Amino acid sequence: MNHDDQGEDGHDLQLPIEFEAFFELYHQRYLDYARAQLSLCEPEQIQDLVEEVLAHLGADWERVLQRPNPTNYAWGALRFAVEHERRQRGEVLRLVEKAVFMAAASRATRPVFEALEDGLGVYDAISRLPERQYDALLLKQFLGYTTAQTADVMGISPPTVRALIHQARTRLRKHTLLAASESDEE
User: Fold this and answer.
1) What is the pLDDT of residues 125-148, one digit of tens each?
2) Domains and CATH numbers, the chain
């Protein structure tokens, strides 16, 4: 995205310095998130999607700043755009894909179908996580962000990130244990 885009009248549009700082801080992080979510898109398409979200935020920057939590609002705008694109393309959640693979790979000594069945249980559990728990888990565990970086990107506090990760892990353990006990009963 060119920071000095042209307005509808063809004149250069100067973006507020605060937005330029926001862009510099979050552009790469937003690209990381979008790339982690959209496996079927070309890199240029992902870049365009992120920059379109940022352009909309920049064009309406004064109103964005009036929100109680501008960073969280911007995160929501990105998340909505990525989720919309992912659903249009019929993609599965990338974190889920990786979890299924890792679960199957970690059980490589067991028969393949049994390992894949366990992986699909993890897939089901991750796909049922609430959005904020999923995002915190994706940013921290899959993309390797620190708790502080995850909090910053999502526009929430570090203790909230820790709570979301804890809740996600608890849900995943509970769900996978329930799935295991249900398969034992069969």
Assistant:
1) 777 789 999 899 889 988 889 999
2) 17-89 (no CATH), 94-185 (1.10.10.10)
